Amino acid sequence: MYRVAITGIGIISCLGNDVRSVSEALRLGKSGIVVDPARTALGFRSPLTGRIEAFALKRPLHRKHRKTMPEFSLWSWAAATDAIQMAGLAPKDLQNDQTGLVFGCDSSCQAAVQQADLLKTHGETRSIGSGWIFRLMTSNITMNLNTILKTRGACWTLSAACSSGGHAVGQAADLVATGRQERVICGGAQEINWETVCSFDGLGAFSTRTQEPEAASRPFDKDRDGLIPSGGAAALVLERMDLAKARNAPVLGEILAYAFSSDGAFLSMPSLDGLQRAMQQALKRAEMTPSDIDYICAHATSTQEGDAAEAENIFSVFGDRCPPVSSTKSMTGHELWMSGASQVVYSVLMARGGFIAPNINFSGPDEHTKKLNIVTGTLDKGPGTVMCNSAGFGGTNACLILGFEA
Amino acid sequence: MRDSEIVEKINSALAEEFELDPASMVPEATLFEDLELDSLDLVDMVIVLEQTFGFKIREEEEIRSIRTLGDIHAFVIKKTHQVLQSP
């Protein structure tokens, strides 16, 4: 097995459109949650959402590419090219069989709705246009990036609900570790629009703390009242460590382990042992014990049941010696398909910036979350090791352990 | 509409849809090689021409033999005159 280096990162999120501004927002504990009045007018319970502000393509794309790319695919292009630039890879370095693409994504809902609307408007399928079939596939990220970057190895998008991004980074790491790819550009992306989340809102899963948008996402807090849908795109370049070092690439960190599990239980309720099994397996794969983990970047989304279950799962593994825990979703809201990948990017930013981001809006625990060591204010020391949890509908769990040299 | 106006209207619609450089839009420019359009673009080209000129051309056999921008000009000019002459 090969060691897996992280040599580049890129991020488009409601905290900012580049690594520098996102890192600063994480350090300051800044929220990216806003009110979208249009959702109220449409009949939503909650108008709260993450929003990507002032996004512009730094590296323009030709119309031929743009017409097959929904908005979140453009965000993915921006994040991926930032990561590639940071890794110091030239276009020709990517145009070979040893370079792959694996992203996590579980919908392209708005495009599907829009093509149906066009049919209703024009009354014939031939007037819809040629780009929509590509836009509406969840694999549109990797299919488009592949044709633009001209990579020739792995090329697929995996769907695993809210752990899609975590599994994508993990699978990419496995492809590199096993020698099947020398480098993989990986990550996750999530569309932000009302079409995608309207029925989710109808389940009563979203926070309705509309008067205080910045305080609405409260993972692990006793007064949490639901998640806030959000999105964006996160990308990483993973590379064989020996090759990265040989070309003097910047080694930002290392993927020490990836483990997965599934609950085999409920559709929307996490079990009390699923995530725990993924965490234990990840520790075993990394040949580590719980005390080797400096920081847990939790999945916690600010729902009653989900956060309680994660707290119990973490307690089962770490017991009374719980390392600092925070959920970046307290600032970003729930980035859904993207979140497992963005947590890795956020963790790299913390390690590089020498801090651990706070779990903002934490006023006190409930009976479950009191078992955790919640980070209530920014810690001024970066983590050397991080455990990133992600979990999704249907009970699919991913756990990644990252390592950073001091 | 004069033929020159039709040509201008075609070029303007295609330039906007396909972000073409007006300098490259000479009659002898081939659609695939010179203007770098592909088979998916041809689907959108038909939609754009139909919406611009208000006629239906997608089922016309003659479209299949179009190779250059000049072929499009000639085809649309002919079609426009046909539409005008029809009762």
N- and C-termini, Cα separation of chain B: 18 Å
**Which residues of chain B form runs of ≥5 with pLDDT under 50?**
none
Assigned CATH class of chain A: Alpha Beta
Tell me the span between the first and last alpha carbons of chain A.
Answer: 24 Å
Anisotropy-based shape of chain B: globular
Q: Approximately what portion of the residues of chain B adopt beta-strand conformation?
A: under 5%
Over all CA atoms, what is the radius of gyration of chain B?
12 Å
Strand content of chain A: 15-25%
CATH superfamily of chain B: ACP-like
Name the overall outline of chain A.
globular
Major pleated sheet of chain B: none
Tell me the number of structural domains of chain B: 1
| Mean pLDDT score of chain B | 91
| Category from helices, strands and their pairing of chain A | alpha/beta
Number of alpha- plus pi-helical segments of chain B: 3
Could you tell me which chain pair has the largest interface and how many residues each side has? A-B, 9 and 13 residues
- CATH level-two architecture of chain B: Orthogonal Bundle
Number of strands of chain A: 13
Descriptive keywords:
heterodimer; A: 406 residues; alpha/beta; Peroxisomal Thiolase, Chain A, domain 1; eleven-stranded mixed beta sheet; two-stranded antiparallel ribbon; B: 87 residues; mainly alpha; Non-ribosomal Peptide Synthetase Peptidyl Carrier Protein, Chain A; 3 helices; 55% helix; globular
Brief digest:
By secondary structure, chain A is an alpha/beta fold. Chain A is built from 15 helices and 13 strands.
Question: Can you tell me about this structure?
Answer:
The complex is a heterodimer of chains A (406) and B (87). By secondary structure, chain A is an alpha/beta fold. Chain A has one domain: Peroxisomal Thiolase, Chain A, domain 1 (3-Layer(aba) Sandwich). Chain A contains 15 helices and 13 strands. Chain A has helices at residues 19-28, 37-42, 63-66, 71-87, 91-94, 109-122, 132-135, 140-149, 164-177, 194-202, 241-246, 274-285, 304-318, 329-332, 339-353, and strands at 4-13, 33-35, 48-50, 99-104, 155-158, 183-190, 232-240, 253-262, 295-297, 324-326, 373-374, 385-392, 396-403. Chain B has 87 residues and is mostly helical. Chain B has a single domain, classed as ACP-like (Non-ribosomal Peptide Synthetase Peptidyl Carrier Protein, Chain A), CATH 1.10.1200. Chain B has helices at 3-18, 39-53, 69-85. Chain A binds chain B through residues 62-64, 67, 126-127, 129-131, and chain B through 17-19, 36, 38, 40-41, 43-44, 46-47, 50, 58.
